[in-house]
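Data deposition worksheet. Section B asks for the primary sequence of the deposited chain exactly as it was used as input, without tags or linkers unless they were present during the calculation. Section C holds the resulting structure in token form. Section D is free text for depositor observations; keep each observation to a single sentence. Incomplete worksheets are returned to the depositor.
Section A, Depositor: J.P.
Section B:
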Amino acid sequence: MSFLRFAVRRLAEMAATLLGASFVIFGALYLAPGNPASFLLGGRSASPEALQAINEHYHLDDPFAVRYLNWLGQVVQGDFGRSITYRTDVSRLLADRLPNTLMLISMALVLVLVFGLLLGWIGAVRGGKADSAILVTTTVAIGTPSFVAAVLLQGLFAVKLGWFPTGGAGDGFGQMLWHLTLPAIALALYLIGMLARVTRAAMLQVLGQEHVTAARSRGVSASQVIRRHVFRNALGTVLTTGGLIVSTLLVCTVLVESAFSVGGIGQLLELSTTTKDFPTVQAISLIMVALFMTVNLVVDLLHPLIDPRVTLGPAKKAP
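Section C:
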């Protein structure tokens, strides 16, 4: 299957999946107990006329199918509706908070890739005490949830030592880097341990293969063997964890942003879920699903470029 045909087919599959996800996201919120009208009333009693006016204003009394189709039509045009809690366009809320989340995820992703790959490389190549130390370290990292890491880092480096701010995202690029350092570490800690383990296992598997032994017998230097034959072949296995890494970052950013009051879409999602702000929750959830599927598509397209043994599309049956 050609690259273009594979990309087009995957895009069509993504569109169908995103359509199904939109229906699930839209319907799941209406199955949950409570309703936006209760939040808008603030617990106060209201006359049937006032309650009816609220329902009519937000179209809460319309049939489910009508609400879904109207919402889907607006989303296709880039309109996510109006926030019930903040009384403003959801698109504006996302535009204000998305940069903080993207910065946090980008910083965490850099930490994951640099330290995860480096620790995995060292553990596989060095062995001995270095490998044992890395195994212990990564075990602790994997066993530490993001919200626990956030509390520990905040208490030690922000409250006790005062090296970093206790919360907020800061203004300007330099301030954002300083404010988001601890949240990024808390977000990346688990994934660093996971990626290091995956990289180490993949490289150890390749180290035992015949082509590595043959390269060494031809007098190829150890550094070239590790770089060209071991690490490059192990990258295919490492790349398959890309979807898991992104999905974990998206999920855990909600907890980390809340702990550090970052003011991103993760914290907005938590607050909107609590207040039954349907349009905001639906928009953020749909964006997260779309981002996750996009990353998986990129991984699938890059995999054959890194590992020529991988082919696009389903495997051909033997004659």
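Section D:
The first helix runs from residue 3 to 31.
The CA atoms of residues 41 and 51 lie 9 Å apart.
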